[in-house]
């Protein structure tokens, strides 16, 4: 039996040196550091201690200096109001915050509080944002009943609204593929943008999205470790840590990732104010995003929006570690399959038919 790990795990902290080294990089150590120094890198160290080209490093440094100069100017100005000074302070602290995965619980809460306050200062409206971690003994899984899907796309609309997706580019995490009966699963021949009455005679429908693999290729290729697998199986992204290289997009064999080519636009009256830091919070230009199984809902004990919106009951979601869950019953009692199982990605998304 193979001894390979089912998922890729990375330590975002600084690499531990051999016991003969103090960690400064000099062979044998320099003798100036304590052997028991286990302090983790702060936000500033993390921001600049990542692989990047000289051009990227210069741009990052320039941006930081500009934000810093603006913060100093605002703080020292006698004409600047308290809100302007607070906004500058928030921008400065956000510029040098560390990777979310490395944050302590207090640091996570402080980050969430800053983002909530920043939105209030910019928009005049209030949002709620969670930093809730994975619950113990929970592993999320998803099943899609091909027999029941009629191609209505209510799931797509619900996903767009729930996850604050860009309306201008019509970004969609979920794809519904219309395929011809008797042709098998030929995605290259499927119609993903049909505009006719459904279900169409002689066709069947199949949905795809992020499959939240146990061994996600997207995680392995990320050069700055902005994406990772959580303990409950969710593959997430720290949008503020993403550099937009799109390596993960190329590595995903399921076309599960999307890139923001421009600043996302969501009408103010349509913004979902119930947000999660790793989920549906408002994104910025130039970062990757994708389905998170609606982390803001699933970690609160609810179904993803697409599951509740499906009018035919074609979607099933739940805890794979709960023997009494519907998802477990489906996997144990139906003839299920997963796409591209030969790749060893171990997706947490199954298909079945009645």
What's the main sheet like? 4 strands, mixed
Give the SSE string: HHHHEEHEEHEEHEEEHHEHEE
Q: What is the radius of gyration?
A: 23 Å
Give the number of DSSP strands. Answer: 12
Helical amount among residues, as a percent range?
25-40%
| Strand arrangement, major sheet | 10-2-12-11
Share of β-strand residues: 5-15%
Unreliable residue stretches: 1-38
* Distance between the ends: 32 Å
Number of helices: 10
Q: Give the overall shape, derived from the CA principal axes.
A: globular
What is the typical, i.e. mean, pLDDT? 84
Structural class comes to alpha+beta
What does this structure look like?
This protein is an alpha+beta fold. Helix content is 28%, strand content 13%. It has ten helices and twelve strands. It has a four-stranded mixed β-sheet with strand order 10-2-12-11. Strands 1-8 form a two-stranded parallel ribbon. Strand 5 (227-229) and strand 6 form a beta hairpin. Helix 2 (54-76) packs antiparallel against helix 3 (82-95) and helix 3 crosses helix 4 (105-123). Mean pLDDT is 84; it is low at 1-38.
